[in-house]
Write a structure and sequence with these properties.
Layout lengths: L1 E4 L3 H10 L4 E4 L11 E4 L2 E4 L10 H10 L4 E5 L2 E5 L2 E4 L11 H14 L12 H26 L20 H9 L11 E5 L6 H9 L4 E2 L4 E5 L4 E4 L4 E3 L2 E4 L3 H7 E2 L14 E11 L10 E3 L9 E3 L14 E10 L6 H14 L9 E14 L3 H16 L2 E3 L1 H4 L6 H22 L8
Parallel strand pairs: 1-2, 1-13, 2-9, 6-16, 10-14, 13-20
Antiparallel strand pairs: 3-4, 5-8, 6-7, 10-11, 11-12, 15-18, 15-19, 16-17, 17-18
Helix pairs in contact: 1-6, 1-11, 3-4, 3-5
Length: 442
């Protein structure tokens, strides 16, 4: 029996791809879907901040097309950066035109100097050193360092750069110079288009998957303890369930703290793992077109507490009542940070108005604040050391870490689906190999 902790995309994808192999998904909440869910408030649909689908793997493209034919539109990204009171196209480093001349000059000269600096390829390198080598001093100081510090709430020199190399586009000199002179470089980077449902929020994706594995999901089934020696999980109501293989999508530090019995010594590693929380203010506005044509805007400067704003009504018309529009702003919070939510929301609305995103006479129809905890995994040297130790130690005990928080990584919806697919293939292969002994087929 394969027991899967968590009914988000990663857990349900594992169950789906396991096919006939006996398995059960234990989901703590009353619905499946995890972070890939949507909430509707007075006709406004909000995801857990923006959830835009970027598909690259042909197997996942085929699955999504089969499950939800015609449901997703493919949309060309319109992302901006608000800096020095100017709105620049994303990415910053390739669209400097419009910034104060001294900032453009610092960015250009720093980038030119960085061309002689080799890009460090060690996973140990800190984020600040990596950014200076890739973009130079000016671009690092104006965007890379302040933006990431606002998002993760850790000093860039304390974080490692091992999560970032694939996600941040490095322009060439020609692109930087052209961008500084006003030639718009739009299509750079991993997410120049995205998919989003034409009607309803991103929850259509987990919902269709939940339908396909409904007979294998148990809702309101929170796992509280795991005994790897007896190969048993214990639920909040005391029920015990035996497993042959355990799939973990619950946040890794919480999982480590669930361990009991003789092999629970790994629990002590949980304290070494750090993360940030995402605060999200959702607003429904009594007019169309808030945000202009933007899908989302980054805010690296210290003139607002939020690091990003997004505009769901620009992803899809079907997420707000007619004649209205919606936006959300995201705040990075340290995991132990206590904030006065009302004051933070008031301040954010004032900043959005000063920046011209809201108008002074806008009527706010819906105001809603949520916390996503954990939000982002912090990559640092402690994380590297813990992962190097616990991943093989747990795998040896038949415990597999997948998904954004089980694998404790910087990950996305497609990766969560792929994690489930790839693990199911490995477990099914292992079952075929062990076959007649019935290793998985309890
Ligand atoms: C702010 C933010 C924005 C994002 N934007 C995007 C985006 O635009 N595009 C994109 O592709 N990805 C985005 N992501 C990432 C995406 O949400 C995740 O990669 C994906 O949804 C993770 O799925 P998962 O199954 O790994 O984890 P989760 O969705 O976290 O699912 C884990 C499940 O486990 C359950 N669980 C936890 N503990 C227990 C327990 N003890 N017992 C039983 N069940 C338990 C939880 O209730 C949950 O349902 C974003 C993430 C964040 C935080």
């Amino acid at each position: 029996m394969v027991v899967i902790i968590g009914g988000g995309l990663a857990g349900m994808s594992t169950a789906y791809h396991l096919g006939n192999t006996p398995c059960t998904v234990l989901e703590a909440g009353p619905v499946a879907g995890g972070l890939c869910g949507s909430r509707t408030i007075d006709g406004f649909v909000f995801d857990y901040t923006g959830h835009l689908l970027h598909l690259r793997d042909p197997r996942i493209v085929a699955l999504v097309d089969e499950w939800l034919p015609g449901v997703f539109s493919t949309i060309e990204r319109k992302a901006y950066i608000h800096s020095h009171d100017v709105r620049l196209p994303f990415p910053f480093q390739a669209n400097l035109h419009g910034l104060p001349p001294e900032v453009v000059s610092d960015c250009l000269m720093g980038f030119i100097r960085s061309l002689d600096v080799p890009v460090p390829d060690s996973p140990e390198v800190d984020f600040e050193t990596w950014s200076l080598a890739v973009f130079g001093r000016g671009i690092s100081d104006a965007f890379m360092l302040p933006y990431n510090e606002k998002l993760f709430r850790r000093a860039p020199a304390e974080m490692t750069a091992d999560w970032v190399a694939w996600a941040v586009p490095k322009p060439n000199l020609e692109q930087v110079v052209q961008g500084a002179l006003g030639v718009v470089n739009r299509g750079l980077g991993y997410n120049s288009t995205f998919r989003y449902p034409t009607r309803g929020g991103i929850e259509v994706l987990p919902n269709v998957l939940a339908d396909r594995v409904r007979d294998r999901i148990r809702l309101n089934a929170e796992v509280q303890r795991v005994d790897m020696d007896r190969q048993v999980v214990t639920l909040a109501d005391g029920e015990q369930i035996a497993y042959d293989e355990l799939v973990v999508t619950t946040p890794l530090p919480r999982f480590l703290n669930m361990l009991e019995g003789p092999s629970s010594e790994l629990s002590s590693r949980a304290d070494k793992l750090d993360w940030s929380v995402v605060g999200c203010l959702n607003l429904g506005i009594d007019r169309p077109d808030v945000g202009g044509d933007a899908h989302w805007i980054y805010f690296p400067d210290d003139d607002s507490r939020y690091y990003r704003a997004g505009f769901p009504t620009n992803f899809s018309e079907g997420v707000a009542p007619e004649g209205t529009s919606s936006l959300y702003v995201e705040f990075g919070l340290r995991r132990d940070e206590v904030i006065d939510e009302e004051a933070v929301c008031r301040e954010a609305i004032a900043d959005l108005t000063r920046q011209g995103i809201l108008r002074p006479d806008d009527r706010i129809l819906v105001q809603d604040f949520i916390r996503i905890d954990p939000g982002y995994v912090i990559f640092d040297r402690d994380r590297q050391a813990v992962m190097n130790e616990v991943v093989p130690a747990l795998a040896n005990r038949g415990v597999h870490l997948i998904g954004r928080y089980g694998a404790w990584t910087y990950s996305y919806m497609e990766r969560a689906l792929l994690d489930g697919l790839e693990l199911a293939e490995r477990l099914s292969g292992c079952k075929a190999a062990q076959g007649r002994q019935g290793a998985l087929g309890v």
